[in-house]
Amino acid sequence: MKTGLCAGVLMALFAVVDVTQAADAEAGRSIADRWCAACHVISDGNADSPAVRGTDAVPTLASIARDPNRGPNWLRQWLVAPHPPMPDLNLSRSETDDVIAYLQRMAR
Ligand code: HEC
């Protein structure tokens, strides 16, 4: 009984580690460049870059990232469900995690 419980706890721990490693902020950045930049200004730092195509009409990704009410769970829910006028981006689970990891890195 006891060893069974131990193995269960260990497996749960490994699962957590797996998820953390799967989220890749760099991959999230290229996803954001490709899929979010059309509408969201990505950062204050790249304002001179021709790649910046975002508009003032939507919150910048940096301001979303810094909003304490927009934590990882909130972002995941936002990104998995369609939110007109924002298009359904059809991100996979791991792409969603990457984008969230990128936003969290931006918030620091
Ligand atoms: C076609 C334009 C468009 C694209 C592409 C887009 N968004 Fe949005 N997004 C919007 C609009 C417009 C809103 C505001 C919606 C509203 O307020 O109801 C929004 C809102 C959001 C919000 C909620 C902000 C808040 O504080 O309420 C998040 C988070 C978000 N977008 C993340 C993303 C991410 C991440 C991507 C790329 C994977 C992305 N968006 C791509 C247009 C877009």
TrEMBL record:
Keywords: Heme, Iron, Metal-binding, Signal. Residues 23-107 form the Cytochrome c domain. Coiled coil: none annotated. PROSITE patterns: CYTC. The keyword Signal applies. It holds the Pfam family Cytochrom_C. The keyword Magnesium does not apply. Residues 1-22 form the signal peptide. It comes from the Bacteria. This is C-type cytochrome. It comes from Azospirillum aestuarii.
